[in-house]
Amino acid sequence: MKKWTSDRWLSIVAIIASLGTLFTIVYQTNLIRKQQYASVLPYLEMWNSNPGKDGETYLLLLMNNGIGPAFIKEVKIHYGDSAYRDDPATFTYRVIKPKDSITNIHYSNIKAGRLIPAGEQIELVGVSKDTVNAPILRKWFAQTDSIEVEVIYESIYGEKWSARGTANEPTRLN
User: Fold this and answer.
1) Residue 27: how many CB atoms within 10 A of its CB?
2) What per-residue confidence (pLDDT) applies to 166?
3) Fewer CB under 10 Å: which end of the chain, C or N?
4) Residue 103 pairs with which residues in a beta bridge?
5) Number of domain units in the chain
6) Statement to judge: residues 113 and 96 lie in one domain
7) Cβ neighbours of residue 124 under 8 Å, at least 6 residues apart?
C-alpha cells in the first residue's frame, strides 16, 4: 500500500479546486443567460378603457409593459365555440357590425409579423364621443364572457407567450 505524500494531497486539492471553479463558471453562465432573457422580456396586456363621460368612449388597448419588444406571431378571437384568426378590428367588421350595426369605429390592425416596442400602447378598436356605439363595443369586448382576444408573441430570444383576455397576465407557451 502506497503512502499518501504531500504531492498526492496537493493533486487532490487542485482537482477539487478545479471542479469548484468549473461549477462556479457554469452557475454564473446560467445566471447571465437568465439575466439576458429577463432584460428583453416583453409583457403584453390587454385592457378595457372607458375614458369618456357618460359611456361615450370605449377602447380596447394592447400594451407592452415589458422591457423588450414583442414579435406578434398570431392573433385570434375566441367567440362562443369558434376561434377566428382575425384581429379585433377585422372581427368587429365581420361579426359585430352585421349583428349590431356599429359605426364610427377607429382601430389599429395587429397581425403576425408586427413588432410592438417596449412601452408601446395600441388602441386595437374603439369608439370616441359616441353614446350609441361605445356601449355596443363595450358589450362585446368588456362585458361578454364569450369573447376573448388572444395575442401570441415572442421575445427576441424566441420565448413564446400568450396574452389572452383582458387584465390577465401572459402565459409562457414554451
Assistant:
1) 10
2) 87
3) N
4) none
5) 2
6) yes
7) 46, 60, 61, 62, 87, 88, 89, 107, 108, 110, 149
Average pLDDT, rounded, for the chain: 90
61 and 135 assigned to the same domain:
yes
- Do residues 101 and 126 both lie within one domain? yes
User: What per-residue confidence (pLDDT) applies to 17?
Assistant: 96
Question: Which residue type sits at 23?
Answer: F
Residues 32, 52, single domain; the answer is no
Residues 71 and 1 in one domain: no
Q: What is the pLDDT of residues 47-64, one digit of tens each?
A: 988 866 677 899 999 999
Q: Return the C-alpha cell found at 25.
A: 463558471
Please state, for a pLDDT cut of 70, what percent of the chain lies above it: 97
Cα–Cα distance measured from residue 88 to residue 131, given in angstroms and rounded to the nearest whole number: 20
The secondary structure of 98-162, three-state, reads HHHCCCCCEECCCCCCCEECCCCEEEEEEECCCCCHHHHHHHHHCCCCCEEEEEEEECCCCCEEE
| Residue 34 belongs to domain spanning | 1-38
Q: What value does the CA radius of gyration of the chain take, rounded to a whole number of Å?
A: 26
Whole-angstrom distance, CA of residue 68 vs CA of residue 65: 9
Percent of the chain with pLDDT over 90: 59
The model carries a pTM of: 0.80
Q: For 70, phi and psi rounded to 5 degrees?
A: -110, 125
